[in-house]
Each structure stands twice: as C-alpha cells, then as structure tokens.
Design goal:
Number of helices: 4
Shape: elongated
Number of domains: 2
Oligomer: single chain
Structural class: mainly alpha
Strand content: under 5%
C-alpha cells in the first residue's frame, strides 16, 4: 500500500512538471511572436511610464535594456525588440 502511495505521488508530480513546462514554453512562443511595441506595452508600462525616446541616445537605451532584462526577467530577444522599437521612435 505504501508503494502505491509513493508511485501515485510520483506520477502526479511528474504530470504537474510536464504540464507546467508545456505552459511556460507556450508563453515563451507567444512572447517571441510579439512586436517590440507589444512587448513594451505588456512589460515596461506595467511598472512605470517610459521617458521620451529622445531622452536617451541609442547606446544609453541599450544599457537600459540590459538592466531591465535582469529586472523584468526577459529574454535577450524580447529586450532587443523593445530597444529597437524605442530607438526607431526616436
């Protein structure tokens, strides 16, 4: 009986991991399809207002992007899209 309980618990745990991993990768795929403008609206505006694109030069925006990549837990691709969007708005 104890073995069945352990096996059942393991099956439930593994099923949960597979389900959660599948959901995370789906979210990553959706985020990869978004434009810089969409990512900016979804991520940056959630916490603060963005200064005018002219407030910083291209190099400064890249530095800000690297900083925010860590703070917002975003991928390099997402940050590159956002920074590119801001730089073209400048």
């Amino acid at each position: 009986m104890k073995k069945l309980l352990v096996i059942g618990t393991m099956i439930i745990s593994l099923s949960s991991i597979v389900f959660l991993t599948g959901s995370c990768s789906s979210q990553r795929e959706l985020a990869a399809q978004k434009s810089g403008a969409q990512l900016w609206a979804d991520n940056c505006l959630r916490c603060h207002n963005l200064p005018s694109p002219a407030a910083y030069n291209d190099v400064e925006w890249e530095t800000i992007g690297l900083h925010m990549k860590e703070r917002a837990n975003m991928t390099t691709e997402q940050i590159e899209k956002i920074v590119s969007f801001i730089q073209t708005a400048n």
